[in-house]
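Hey team,

Filing this mostly as a record. A colleague (T.K.) asked me to run one chain through the structure pipeline before their review meeting, and I want the input and output archived in the tracker in case anyone asks later how it was produced. No errors, nothing strange. Just documentation.

Input sequence:
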Amino acid sequence: MPILIPALLAIAAVERPDLAAVFVEQGTPGTFVLHDVSADRLTVADRARASRRYVPASTFKIANSLIAIETGAVQDEREVVPYGGRRQPFPQWERDMDMREAIRASSVPVYQAIARRIGRKRMHEHLERLGYGNRRIGTVLDRFWLDGPLQISAIEQACFVARLAQGKLLLSERSRRIVRDILRLEEKDGGTLFGKTGWASGPTPPMIGWWVGWVEREGRVYAFALNIDMASADDAPKRLAIGRSLLARLGLLSTP
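Output structure:
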């Protein structure tokens, strides 16, 4: 079960019921957090859920990528990592990929191989250094972000990627620059969008869908995190649909 945690940062927070209404319109419970870094302010839809920790699923590829580059487990975004040769649930995962390709395809087997290269000791040390969620990796090194015990809240996710965008993580500028580049999704209307989705499918429903990232506009950083309940795979597109709608309402993206 998700764990309700206290607020971690003394940042002013504004609850926006009008933003929460977007989840009702889409027929799914969820939360959204926007961290306006310059104003040091959080804008939140459903503060209680935004403080609740869930398994990060593929949004952990952001941290996994940073740790891989920082430790030298992967030399750069162009190094091809073998996927292992086993049958996968999605045919597009059944090939070796570099990190840029793997994060676009959200390749689980490639990032599992990367985690094994990093190793338990270095993974734990860097989760502590990054202050990532509950920092727990348990006993299974290549599944802890998919099945637990690692968990993180939407507030923590937004604050984590805000620090990444600002260069305030305890990592090298090279690691930050490479990961920032592979997370870039689009440049449009004077803004640049970065992000990564996630899909956590536990033993019991609902599944949890994530979208985490940030927008850079006019020299300012707006970090965001969204999670929703997903009754089935048909709900997966709602992650981006809801997220883009909310970012548009806040004036950060063009109307979808």
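Quick notes for T.K.: The CA atoms of residues 10 and 40 lie 9 Å apart. The two ends are 34 Å apart (CA to CA).
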